[in-house]
Amino acid sequence: MFKPGPLITGEWPRGFGTFGAVPAWWKQAHPEALAKKSNGQLFNYSPTGAADQTQPSYLHPTYLAAVKEWYAQVLAPVKKHLGGCLVAIQVDNETNLYWGNRYGDVDYSSVALTHYRDFLQKKYSTIGALNTRYGKSYSTFADVAPPSSAPSFTTPRKDNPWYADWYWAGQALSRDYLADWPRRAPAWSCSRRRPDAARHYCAANTNGTLTVVDPLELENCQPFTRAAMQLARPG
Q1: What are phi and psi of 156, to 5 degrees?
Q2: In the chain, what are the domain boundaries?
Q3: Model pTM greater than 0.85?
Q4: In what order do the strands lie in the sheet with 222-224?
């Protein structure tokens, strides 16, 4: 199995308390591309309190450009092994919002907030429909601010859709990051085909949804449901 990263969110790459595997030097050089908390501070995930455990905001263009360059360098040498000794590719392990508190901690960067408002617009189509659902009177989707703290037992029931949309926008953020993987890794394009029994898939689990990739035909990558994954799996 080949695990190119660059983000491996279920591992401790430099021992307990480290996280994610994106180089510390890169994060220090690009603070604008890091995930932020609702108070504007950089999000940090570390059970030991390590100060260098800030993490990239998934869809920030600076981060995505770095990912594409990384893939260009690391994938080319192993391409010839696809379908041979290389039988599986794991893009990431347990992709999520860094096990952070969605309500207050991650991700409130400008790119993530733009994605959130795009998510709302796709869901509701018109600001009037959102206002009806939320019981608000926003003028535009750009006026909608996400929750900055978690709901409680005293939270008015009418606010549930607002909290729920912020949560599901976070899931969509992780999904869209993974779905963009083929565009960032053109080096995987390969015309060589093997029998179905020899084809292998890499799957990224994002809260019940699997993104399935055939490494021998990556340009045709499509999202599948869990049931479709079972149908697609060889043998």
Answers
A1: -60, 140
A2: 24-99+169-232
A3: no
A4: 202-206, 209-213, 222-224
